Amino acid sequence: MPELVDPDPRYQRSFLESVEEWLAAGDAERWAGLSTIPAIGESEGEAFTLVELADPSRFSTYTARLKSLADPATPLPAGIVTATQLWWVDGQEYLGRLSIRHSLTPWLLEFGGHIGYSVRPSARRRGHATAMLAAALPVANRLGIDPVLVTCDDTNVASRRVIEAAGGVFEDQRGEKLRYWIATS
User: How far is CA 115 from the centre of its chain?
Assistant: First the structure.
């Protein structure tokens, strides 16, 4: 049965296969999970390449870095907030990832929200996003976040259904983003 877990080197093979799927599908590299910190403002961000992550030592560094982002003591560039990174796995199979942002910047309040998620292309349309978001709500609650803001593009019908299935209450649309609040308690 799939579950949310901390990023871990034991999922290297499956994670790398998912990155190859993302790239083959022509989707943006940011959805593949190569970036640990997005480029924002004057910060170039942090990212790993597929070639780097093929090295087990670099993959261990990558997973450790993802886990470090949940620690409020970790120095972060301006505009980046502390966030818990979790992976959705079934046994040894990496299926997707989810990020719970502990606080909201003005941009996150308008467009990004507390929780972002993605499911690898070969695992889509099987209910993973819905289950992953539902599993993340108690984690957000333990982090003291209630309710959470979750957003999606106005053209993303699948994501809208995921958010609504999790109890999302529509607040408004800002630009191309639909904004929903979900109770975590």
Answer: 7
Domains of the chain: 3-182 (3.40.630.30)
Q: Which residues contact 124 (CB under 8 A, 6 or more apart)?
A: none
Q: With the C-alpha atoms ordered 5, 100, 144, 156, is the resulting torsion angle positive or negative? A: negative
d(CA 80, CA 110): 15
d(CA 160, CA 153): 8
Does residue 89 contact residue 99 with C-beta atoms inside 8 Å? no
C-beta separation of 142 from 168 below 8 A? no
Of 74, 83, 124, the C-alpha closest to 103 is 83
> In a 3-state reduction of DSSP, which class is residue 146?
coil
The pLDDT tens digits of the residues spanning 125-173 come to 999 999 999 999 999 999 999 999 999 999 999 999 999 999 999 999 9
